[in-house]
Amino acid sequence: MDTFSLLAGGLLTALQPMSLVYAFIGVLLGTAVGVLPGIGPALTVALLLPVTYKLDPAGSLIMFAGIYYGGMYGGSTTSILLNTPGESASIITALEGNKMARAGRGGPALATAAIGSFIAGLVATIALAFLAPTVVKLALSFGPADYFALMVLAFVTVSAAFGSSALMGLTSLFIGLTLGLVGIDLQTGQARLAFGVPDLLDGIEVTTLAVALFAIGETLAVAGAGARAPDKIEPVRGSVWMTAADWGRSWKPWLRGTAIGFPIGAMPAGGAEIGTFLSYAAERRLTKHPEEFGHGAIEGVAGPEAANNASAAGTLVPLLTLGLPTSATAAIMLAGFQQFGLQPGPLLFINSPQLVWGLIASLLVANFMLLILNLPLVGLWVRLLAIPRAWLYAGILTFSTLGTIGANPSQVELGMLLGFGLLGYGLRRFGYPIAPVVIGLILGPLAEQQLRRALAISQGDLLVLVQSPLAIALYLIAAAALLIPLVMRLRGRGEVLNQLAADED
Amino acid sequence: MSELGSQRDERRPDRAALVIAAGLAVLSGVIFWNTASIGTAGSYARIGPTAFPYAIAGALLLISIGTALRAWRGHFPVREADEPAPILWIVGGLAAQMLLLKVAGFAIATGILFALTARGFGRGPLWMTLPIGIGLSLAIWLVFARLLQLSLPAGPLERLFL
């Protein structure tokens, strides 16, 4: 198989001493930041992006892989010990995991989450390696009209299909699309929505928006809530190790979670949390200990946590092969690629295979490092959780602004940071989802580009958009994703969808 | 749209949500107005640089109407009252950092942000948190500007190390 030799080549890159150092730093930083309450993987990646500015693309992407996986591990630790999931995909982990921690079984809960994440990460990364070349081959035959249809589908699923209301999801998405308009139009050189401000001509930085919405918005929301926010850490008592019974109850959920999570993440639709909910439902039905569910069932941690990691690895399939980010984290990773002038997509696999395969191999390496690093160091991470809220958020804001200043030391940029921070607070306050804004910003200009390219080829004939069977199929799926939830809500089944709300990631 | 909670008792128009609807309408208007000023000369394709903005502005207008209807029926998620004071402290910190960055340098500007944020979370007094923040920011400046070569603005404090 070709994949084997490519992956082996990638492993050679990833196992070089310097690459290992980068991966290690990435994993360490990713876990340390990801473990902080209220910080999910998306924000972890956005905050740590400036650290990678001065590295070469290969080293930077390797560190990135470590940060990404590390951030996810850190997030599960927080949700188990603190019951404040930093991202919506960890809500389920918090549900059962925090109950286990309160019952003095925090150690095994952390262990099953870590090992489950490891197995899911391993299987899913290998699946990514084998699936990617096939998708790339397929994607090479896509025309601009197909890409546009694909992006329309991503817009719909990210914003409207899940969550409390399609209207709110669409509002967030269109705010993001509006922000995406700002700057010089690439095809004609016209400035749009720049209002004569030179800083705006280059468009709005994805990292600025993401850091503002996630970090500053979250800080303002927590500060505004005052004493309302919960702030209680469950100490890890007893053994960290799992008993034989724990292992026996965990291994099947790990595998099932992986099998559920990966395909959901790999679809160009988005939403890591859906996999975790499905996995939880499956474990609840299949368990031999139904009475423990809701009171700390280990299956309820093992399955969803594996599903979470598997679908996070799955989102790399559309990101790397199609250049299509379907989660906020993926959108920021795309921005990370773009800072080196790299555009993910089928051509990246052809033009810089060593880079892509080095990244995929680094994910495997990072996964191993996390397994070794996490269980012994859990005590250290727990101490990070104990930082008083005032210092924690003061530090978060210091680092958020550091990243923005480091990228572009201008007052306009900081003004945008403040403005978007207030926007993020407002969105949280009124229950609007955040991720569609970020995805709209990065995907909007790409969608416009594909649409105009398609129409330029057809000389303005709009029918070109619905001429390929693939595009028609994608539009039909998008329409279904928009209409079925609408019908469900009208028939009073909205609660199911509320639970699937995409919030942070 | 969605019925959050099933209580059917009287619902009042949600004023804050009506403000959101108005804001979305204004945003839509700004895009229309800005796009109208773009000339389409030189672009022979039917879809020029103005088509996408017009489509987005139109969608925003529809969303604004939908939001207004929903706000009128009081179908917005229930919110608890937030405390304004902590938020103002933090926003003040961010604004102070933005205004002072070029003049006072990274360490002092960011130190002020740090101290005011801590104040927002009820930690003080400022004469203690301010030096802590400035010291921390100076350390960050040394690591990132000296070691990692990030371009962070220097002020009087940073010049001591240049």
The tally of domains of chain B stands at 2
Q: What's the overall geometry of chain A?
A: globular
- Give the integer mean of the pLDDT values of chain A: 82
Order of helices and strands of chain B: HHHHH
Q: What is the tally of helical segments of chain B?
A: 5
What radius of gyration of chain B results from the CA coordinates? Answer: 24 Å
Uncertain runs of chain B: 1-9
Strand content of chain A: under 5%
- Domain count of chain A: the total is 1
Q: Portion of residues in helices of chain B?
A: 55-70%
Separation of the first and last Cα atoms of chain A: 35 Å
The greatest interface here is:
A-B, 71 and 75 residues
Produce a short descriptive summary.
The complex is a heterodimer of chains A (505) and B (162). Chain A has 505 residues and is mainly alpha-helical. Chain A has helices at 2-14, 17-34, 41-48, 57-82, 91-102, 106-139, 144-161, 166-181, 206-225, 244-266, 272-286, 299-314, 316-322, 328-338, 346-351, 353-385, 389-407, 411-429, 435-457, 469-490, 494-499, and strands at 183-184, 191-192.
Structure description:
Chain A is mainly alpha-helical and 505 residues long. Chain A has one domain. Chain A has 21 helices and two strands. Chain A has a two-stranded antiparallel sheet with strand order 1-2. Chain B is an all-alpha fold and 162 residues long. Chain B folds into two domains: 2-73; 84-159, no CATH class. Chain B is built from five helices and no strands. In chain B, helix 1 (15-36) packs antiparallel against helix 2 (51-72) and helix 3 crosses helix 4. Chain B starts with 14 loop residues before the first helix and ends with a helix. In chain B, 37% of the residues are buried.
Keywords:
heterodimer, A: 505 residues, mainly alpha, two-stranded antiparallel ribbon, 1% strand, globular, disordered C terminus, B: 162 residues, 2 domains, 5 helices, 66% helix, flat, disordered N terminus
